[in-house]
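Just wondering, does anyone understand what follows?

——
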Amino acid sequence: MKILVINSGSSSIKYQLFEIENGDYELLAKGLVDRIGLSGSAVYHRPKDKKETVVEKDIPNHELGIKLMLDLLTHPSHGVIKDMKEIEGIGHRVVHGGEKFYESVLIDDEVEKTIEECIELAPLHNPPNLLGIKSCKRLLPGVPQVAVFDTAFHQTMPKKAYLYGLPIEQYERYRIRRYGFHGTSHRYVAFEAAKILGKDLTELKIVTCHLGNGCSITAVKNGKSVDTSMGFTPLEGLVMGTRAGDMDPYIPLFIIEKQGLTPQEVNNLMNKKSGLLGLSGNRDMRDVMAAAEKGDERAKTALEIFVYRVAKYIGAYAMAMGGLDAVVFTAGMGENSPYLREKVLEYGGFLGIKVDKEKNEKNERIFTTPDSKVVGLVIPTNEELVIARDTYSIISKK
């Protein structure tokens, strides 16, 4: 079965086409529709075993972007299928499903309505996610579509983990609570960790660290998310590329009072001008580390703060789960920075964590010593594969 996976953002669409049968899969093609509605828009298309094809063209909206993508997938030279009818299912990444969805679902009118109702909870992400769904409905009528939610994996959190210390009416009327994000990634790497360790996921206590430009950490106990660092929005938790992370809730009010900024300006400050960028002047950890090596004090401090916050969450979640079997690092920084992994786990000596420096430098899947009481793993995330597999599973049951 050929499954098309779409991640529709505000000005871009990432896509992958999979061939899936039972547990086996093959990636046939992937690409990016970039700068939708902006100058310099283009489609970057890479079929399996072929060179990348770039189509530079004015792309004013998402529907045209998806049409160009489909044209490339069926192109005589650059394509991997002969006809769009070969696509039997479409899986969509949807950021926010609120409390309604605790697993992936077949999209119908009611599901679309609920995704739309969640726009107030994810105003930057759900609208383009919905655009992708509606565009595919028009361009590929009759092809079943599945929504895979970033928030779904975290719906197993207990109230003690997801409720804030606000008047309960704020939750009951406005659903203000911790939702968590990156759930598809956390779910995938936790499952892969169990396979690598040769154990049943339901028997393990794992902390998964998704460390990219956006960062979050999740406590996965017996296969379920029991706590996670991102909250009502992706702003809470770790210091990230441009997001501030945890802070005193009064700080935004103080800034408004002292600097006369509007709520939107403060929102922009905390989401787009803070984090590593605000602390060091660089949003990319590679640049922060390079500057720190040259003696830049701001960069050194930013690096120390980042490492400390990650370590603190791992320690807190080990306590919350009543133990710890493994720590998994994934996403850009997690997968590619031995230095960060080592520095973070240096804090875990009291837990019996011992890093094998040689294995860590080689990015080996297990990079702790055989006698380490907690296993450290590097696992590349694959959210698209999770979406494809969920789509295949749901459609197969129709």
About this structure: The domain at 2-149 is CATH 3.30.420.40 (Nucleotidyltransferase; domain 5). The radius of gyration is 22 Å. The chain has 15 helices and 13 strands. The chain has two domains: 2-149, 199-378.
